[in-house]
Amino acid sequence: DASVLFMLLCLIPFVLLFGLGVPLVQPLHWFDFGKGAGPVQWGKAISMLTWNLCGFDAAGHVVEEVKDYSDFPRAVIGCLLLTTLTYLLPILVGTSVNQNYDDWQDGYWGTIAGEIGGEWLEFIMAI
């Protein structure tokens, strides 16, 4: 199925980034907001979270198609957990490697990947 293949192609660079970056994880950096981090812009944060998690409400429109309703809540919870981990794990590794949050702009995952795995991982992430 093309959608599964596309999903794997999108996730593989982040899985590699996380796998190679685990030895570099420094939990104390997760709470260090001193370098370039201004005050939290709650409006942007909530807007981004809403955008990233939109679509879960659409599952309610097709619930009638589910044969066993007990599977539906488990599927939604599993999907929420996987989505959260997909976002959270690379961010935890990335913030351990580079705490200069002024640098974190669009397309910065490639730079983080380069710092963790070298040019080959930066190239894969950029694709």
Task: Give an account of the 3D structure.
The chain is mainly α and 127 residues long. It is 60% helix and 0% strand. It contains 5 helices and no strands. It has helices at residues 2-21, 42-53, 71-97, 109-117, 119-126. α1 packs across α3. The radius of gyration is 17 Å and the shape is globular. The mean pLDDT is 84.
What's the helix and strand layout?
Layout: H1 2-21, H2 42-53, H3 71-97, H4 109-117, H5 119-126
Helix pairs in contact: 1-3, 1-4, 4-5
Label this structure with key terms.
127 residues, globular, mainly alpha
Terminal Cα separation, in Å?
A: 21 Å
Report the sheet-strand fraction: under 5%
Report the strand count. Answer: 0
**Helix/strand structural class:** mainly alpha
The proportion of residues forming helix, as a percent range, comes to 55-70%
Total number of helices: 5
Tell me, briefly, the overall form: globular
- H/E topology pattern: HHHHH
Oligomeric state, counting identical vs distinct chains: single chain
Radius of gyration: 17 Å
Q: State the low-pLDDT regions, or none.
A: none
Mean pLDDT: 84
Main sheet characteristics: none
